[in-house]
């Protein structure tokens, strides 16, 4: 962690500690104030302009007593070698930044190239069959020439098979936790987690001390899907966490692939349903992924195409900014929009990388 940013880091972590400040509300606050620290020092009349913030939440922000806990967390992170990414940081994963509900804070142990051009997540049942484990291993092996980063959740079954295959064939892998980085769940995977940290990273948006509650796993899945260009489902029952990840990936307009199976097998029903209902592309080999994600075309063109799909409102902001830097109040007057609408559109345009927010609520075009 950069010592020069330690003070801002404290406020970034503290923002997540305020009861009621979820990721979406937190980002709207940041879009208006310009920084996490500025949120804590904002006046009531300014906070009242932010969409979704009622009087109860404003009171919680103005009387926030979470800074001491944030300082304790920073000390623990420094001691344990935990890295911190805030959603506004340049290194924050671009794919995840495009998701409205992306976490404000990410914590990780290890080293990863967040700008790698290829991320895929592999998920599936905890009760994997021999076929499922072997298919996972073979799929990862076939993908080695394309050097993707493999994302999964360190659970029993398909998750572990994906992590182990990545490690075996020299690919980086990310294990996304549904709890703090001060523990490993399941505990049986502690040694595997250490190996992953040395060849990728352990990732979470939860602070230390957070235990693996059931609801955390569904929330964790948004990170698994959001980090990835595609979600690969290998063996799944009709209901389960893999289908939640699939739903999230589809909501993010990411590709989903599913491996078909014997209709009489319980752990084939989920994948077969995804394919039958056209929520997933039928997956038989790595070739389907390569073709589906256009990995055989110029990667730069694919990366640039992410950012050219602007809404009419986003195009209006780009036209107004032109080559100028403008304060948010000037933008309100020029566009004749309300603060809530403007903050929302600014945030989405920033996610797409076409504008940059500067200190003092100033905005400019990124290029």
Brief digest:
This protein is an alpha/beta fold and 367 residues long. It is built from 18 helices and twelve strands. The two termini are 28 Å apart.
Could you characterize the architecture of this molecule?
- The protein is an alpha/beta fold and 367 residues long.
- The chain contains 18 helices and twelve strands.
- Strands 1-2-6-5-4-3-7-8-9 form a nine-stranded mixed sheet, sandwiched between helices.
- A hairpin with a 3-residue loop joins strand 11 and strand 12.
- Helix 1 packs across helix 6 and helix 2 crosses helix 18.
Characteristic terms for this protein:
18 helices; 367 residues; 9-stranded mixed beta sheet; globular; 46% helix; 14% strand; alpha/beta; single chain; 3-stranded antiparallel beta sheet
Q: Strand order, main sheet: write it out.
A: 1-2-6-5-4-3-7-8-9
**Helix/strand-derived class?**
alpha/beta
Number of strands: 12
C-alpha termini separation: 28 Å
Poorly predicted tracts of residues: 297-308
Strand fraction band? 5-15%
Order of helices and strands: HHHHHHEHEEHEHEHEHEHEHEHHHEHHEE
How do the strands and helices of this protein lay out in sequence?
Elements: H1 6-17, H2 23-33, H3 36-41, H4 44-47, H5 55-62, H6 67-80, E1 83-86, H7 94-97, E2 105-110, E3 119-124, H8 130-143, E4 149-152, H9 158-168, E5 173-176, H10 190-198, E6 200-204, H11 214-226, E7 230-234, H12 241-251, E8 255-258, H13 269-276, E9 281-282, H14 286-292, H15 299-305, H16 312-321, E10 326-327, H17 328-335, H18 339-351, E11 355-358, E12 362-365
Parallel strand pairs: 3-4, 3-7, 4-5, 5-6, 7-8, 8-9
Antiparallel strand pairs: 1-2, 2-6, 10-12, 11-12
């Amino acid at each position: 962690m950069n010592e020069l940013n330690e003070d801002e880091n404290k406020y970034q972590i503290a923002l997540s500690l305020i009861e009621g400040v979820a990721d979406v509300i937190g980002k709207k606050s940041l879009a208006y104030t310009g920084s996490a620290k500025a949120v804590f020092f904002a006046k009531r009349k300014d906070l009242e302009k932010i969409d979704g913030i009622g009087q109860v939440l404003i009171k919680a922000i103005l009387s926030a007593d979470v800074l001491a806990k944030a300082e304790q967390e920073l000390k623990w992170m420094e001691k344990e070698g935990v890295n911190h990414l805030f959603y506004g940081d340049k290194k924050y994963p671009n794919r995840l930044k495009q998701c409205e509900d992306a976490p404000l804070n990410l914590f990780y142990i290890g080293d990863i190239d967040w700008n790698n051009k290829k991320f895929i997540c592999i998920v599936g049942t905890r009760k994997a069959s021999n076929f499922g484990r072997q298919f996972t291993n073979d799929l990862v092996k076939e993908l080695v020439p394309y050097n993707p980063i493999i994302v999964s959740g360190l659970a029993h079954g398909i998750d572990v098979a994906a992590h182990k295959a990545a490690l075996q064939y020299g690919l980086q892998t990310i294990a996304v936790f549904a709890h703090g980085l001060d523990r490993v769940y399941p505990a049986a995977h502690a040694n595997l987690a250490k190996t992953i940290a040395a060849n990728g990273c352990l990732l979470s948006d939860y602070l230390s001390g957070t235990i693996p509650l059931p609801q955390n796993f569904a929330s964790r899945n948004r990170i698994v899907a959001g980090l990835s260009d595609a979600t690969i489902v290998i063996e799944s029952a009709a209901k389960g966490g893999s289908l939640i990840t699939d739903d999230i990936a589809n909501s993010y307009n990411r590709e989903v692939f599913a491996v078909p199976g014997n209709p009489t097998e319980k752990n084939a029903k989920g994948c077969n349903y995804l394919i039958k209902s056209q929520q997933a592309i039928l997956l038989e080999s790595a070739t389907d992924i390569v073709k589906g994600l256009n990995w055989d075309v110029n990667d730069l063109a694919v990366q640039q195409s992410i950012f050219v799909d602007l809404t009419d409102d986003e195009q209006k902001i780009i036209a107004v900014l032109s080559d100028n830097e403008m304060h948010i109040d000037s933008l309100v007057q020029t566009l004749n929009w309300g603060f809530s609408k403007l903050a929302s559109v600014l945030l989405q345009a920033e996610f797409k990388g076409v504008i940059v927010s500067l200190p003092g609520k100033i905005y400019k075009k990124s290029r």
